[in-house]
Protein backbone atom coordinates (compact mmCIF):
# COMPACT_ATOMS: atom_id res chain seq x y z
CA UNK A 1 0.00 0.00 0.00
CA UNK A 2 2.78 2.44 0.93
CA UNK A 3 4.63 1.52 -2.25
CA UNK A 4 1.55 2.22 -4.42
CA UNK A 5 1.01 5.57 -2.68
CA UNK A 6 4.66 6.46 -3.28
CA UNK A 7 4.35 5.76 -7.02
CA UNK A 8 1.10 7.71 -7.26
CA UNK A 9 2.72 10.72 -5.56
CA UNK A 10 5.80 10.36 -7.78
CA UNK A 11 3.64 10.25 -10.93
CA UNK A 12 1.64 13.29 -9.77
CA UNK A 13 4.86 15.22 -9.05
CA UNK A 14 6.23 14.43 -12.51
CA UNK A 15 2.94 15.45 -14.15
CA UNK A 16 2.90 18.79 -12.28
CA UNK A 17 6.56 19.41 -13.16
CA UNK A 18 5.97 18.70 -16.86
CA UNK A 19 2.88 20.93 -16.93
CA UNK A 20 4.86 23.75 -15.29
CA UNK A 21 7.71 23.36 -17.81
CA UNK A 22 5.25 23.43 -20.72
CA UNK A 23 3.62 26.57 -19.30
CA UNK A 24 7.03 28.24 -18.87
CA UNK A 25 8.00 27.34 -22.44
CA UNK A 26 4.72 28.86 -23.69
CA UNK A 27 5.33 32.06 -21.72
CA UNK A 28 8.89 32.26 -23.05
CA UNK A 29 7.69 31.84 -26.65
CA UNK A 30 5.05 34.54 -26.15
CA UNK A 31 7.65 36.86 -24.58
CA UNK A 32 9.89 36.47 -27.60
CA UNK A 33 7.08 37.37 -30.00
CA UNK A 34 5.10 39.90 -27.93
CA UNK A 35 7.13 43.05 -27.49
CA UNK A 36 4.28 45.50 -26.80
CA UNK A 37 1.21 45.17 -24.60
CA UNK A 38 -1.12 47.59 -22.82
CA UNK A 39 -3.23 47.59 -19.67
CA UNK A 40 -5.91 50.29 -19.34
CA UNK A 41 -7.85 51.08 -16.17
CA UNK A 42 -10.99 53.19 -15.78
CA UNK A 43 -10.39 55.41 -12.73
CA UNK A 44 -14.03 56.56 -12.54
CA UNK A 45 -15.56 53.12 -12.33
CA UNK A 46 -12.59 51.41 -10.67
CA UNK A 47 -12.33 48.65 -13.24
CA UNK A 48 -10.47 47.65 -16.39
CA UNK A 49 -11.31 49.74 -19.46
CA UNK A 50 -12.82 46.99 -21.62
CA UNK A 51 -13.64 47.48 -25.30
CA UNK A 52 -11.39 50.54 -25.73
CA UNK A 53 -10.17 51.02 -29.32
CA UNK A 54 -6.49 51.70 -29.83
CA UNK A 55 -3.94 51.94 -32.60
CA UNK A 56 -0.18 51.49 -32.66
CA UNK A 57 1.58 53.74 -35.14
CA UNK A 58 5.20 54.20 -36.16
CA UNK A 59 6.70 57.53 -37.17
CA UNK A 60 7.57 57.74 -40.82
CA UNK A 61 9.09 60.36 -43.02
CA UNK A 62 7.94 64.00 -42.99
CA UNK A 63 5.91 63.79 -39.75
CA UNK A 64 3.72 60.94 -41.00
CA UNK A 65 2.51 57.92 -39.03
CA UNK A 66 2.02 54.38 -40.35
CA UNK A 67 -0.40 52.02 -38.60
CA UNK A 68 1.34 48.98 -37.12
CA UNK A 69 -1.80 47.45 -35.57
CA UNK A 70 -5.30 48.31 -34.40
CA UNK A 71 -7.02 46.44 -31.57
CA UNK A 72 -9.65 46.60 -28.81
CA UNK A 73 -8.92 45.95 -25.13
CA UNK A 74 -10.31 42.73 -23.69
CA UNK A 75 -12.48 42.45 -20.56
CA UNK A 76 -9.34 42.86 -18.42
CA UNK A 77 -8.51 46.15 -20.19
CA UNK A 78 -5.52 44.48 -21.85
CA UNK A 79 -4.16 43.91 -25.31
CA UNK A 80 -1.28 41.49 -25.76
CA UNK A 81 0.76 40.93 -28.91
CA UNK A 82 0.29 44.45 -30.27
CA UNK A 83 3.52 43.98 -32.16
CA UNK A 84 5.89 41.08 -32.64
CA UNK A 85 9.65 41.24 -32.49
CA UNK A 86 9.92 40.92 -36.26
CA UNK A 87 7.90 44.06 -37.08
CA UNK A 88 8.85 46.14 -34.05
CA UNK A 89 12.03 47.85 -35.19
CA UNK A 90 13.92 50.80 -33.80
CA UNK A 91 11.96 54.06 -34.11
CA UNK A 92 9.35 56.35 -32.61
CA UNK A 93 5.99 54.76 -31.81
CA UNK A 94 2.62 56.11 -30.73
CA UNK A 95 -0.19 54.22 -29.06
CA UNK A 96 -3.40 56.16 -29.67
CA UNK A 97 -6.32 55.39 -27.32
CA UNK A 98 -9.82 56.39 -28.54
CA UNK A 99 -10.96 57.77 -25.20
CA UNK A 100 -13.89 59.82 -26.53
CA UNK A 101 -15.68 56.76 -27.91
CA UNK A 102 -14.93 54.81 -24.71
CA UNK A 103 -16.33 57.49 -22.35
CA UNK A 104 -19.38 58.10 -24.55
CA UNK A 105 -20.10 54.34 -24.45
CA UNK A 106 -20.35 54.48 -20.63
CA UNK A 107 -22.48 57.66 -20.65
CA UNK A 108 -19.82 60.28 -19.87
CA UNK A 109 -18.74 63.36 -21.81
CA UNK A 110 -14.92 63.49 -21.88
CA UNK A 111 -12.54 66.40 -22.35
CA UNK A 112 -9.93 64.32 -24.21
CA UNK A 113 -10.87 62.78 -27.54
CA UNK A 114 -7.71 60.67 -27.73
CA UNK A 115 -4.89 59.85 -25.40
CA UNK A 116 -1.51 59.34 -27.05
CA UNK A 117 1.56 57.68 -25.60
CA UNK A 118 4.62 58.39 -27.75
CA UNK A 119 7.89 56.58 -27.06
CA UNK A 120 11.11 55.44 -28.70
CA UNK A 121 11.64 51.80 -29.58
CA UNK A 122 15.03 50.81 -28.20
CA UNK A 123 18.25 51.31 -30.08
CA UNK A 124 19.83 48.83 -27.68
CA UNK A 125 18.21 45.69 -28.99
CA UNK A 126 15.08 43.67 -28.28
CA UNK A 127 12.95 44.87 -25.35
CA UNK A 128 9.46 44.18 -23.98
CA UNK A 129 7.22 47.21 -23.42
CA UNK A 130 4.18 47.23 -21.16
CA UNK A 131 2.17 50.46 -21.11
CA UNK A 132 -0.21 51.02 -18.21
CA UNK A 133 -2.80 53.79 -18.59
CA UNK A 134 -5.17 55.14 -15.93
CA UNK A 135 -8.08 57.07 -17.50
CA UNK A 136 -10.71 59.50 -16.35
CA UNK A 137 -12.82 61.80 -18.58
CA UNK A 138 -10.62 64.82 -17.75
CA UNK A 139 -7.22 63.32 -17.08
CA UNK A 140 -4.95 60.39 -17.71
CA UNK A 141 -1.68 59.08 -16.41
CA UNK A 142 0.61 56.51 -17.89
CA UNK A 143 3.64 54.52 -16.94
CA UNK A 144 5.78 52.04 -18.81
CA UNK A 145 7.68 48.95 -17.84
CA UNK A 146 10.58 48.29 -20.20
CA UNK A 147 12.47 45.05 -19.85
CA UNK A 148 15.40 43.67 -21.71
CA UNK A 149 14.96 40.42 -23.57
CA UNK A 150 15.26 37.45 -21.23
CA UNK A 151 18.24 35.19 -21.81
Automatic annotation (TrEMBL):
Q: Give the signal peptide as a residue range, or say none if absent.
A: 1-19
Does the keyword DNA damage feature in the UniProt annotation?
Answer: no
Q: Does the keyword Lyase apply?
A: no
Q: Which residues form the Transthyretin/hydroxyisourate hydrolase domain?
A: 31-151
The record, for SMART domains, names: TR_THY
Location comes to:
Secreted
Write the record's keywords in alphabetical order, separated by commas. Hormone, Secreted, Signal, Sulfation, Thyroid hormone, Transport
Q: Which residues form a coiled coil?
A: none
Subunit info here reads:
Homotetramer.
Family in the record: Belongs to the transthyretin family.
Protein function: Thyroid hormone-binding protein. Probably transports thyroxine from the bloodstream to the brain.
What is the name of the protein in this document? Transthyretin
Amino acid sequence: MARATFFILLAATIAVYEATQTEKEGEKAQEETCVLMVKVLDAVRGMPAAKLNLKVLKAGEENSWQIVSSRITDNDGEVHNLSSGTNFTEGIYKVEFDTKTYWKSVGLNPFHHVTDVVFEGSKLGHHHYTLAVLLSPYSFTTTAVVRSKHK
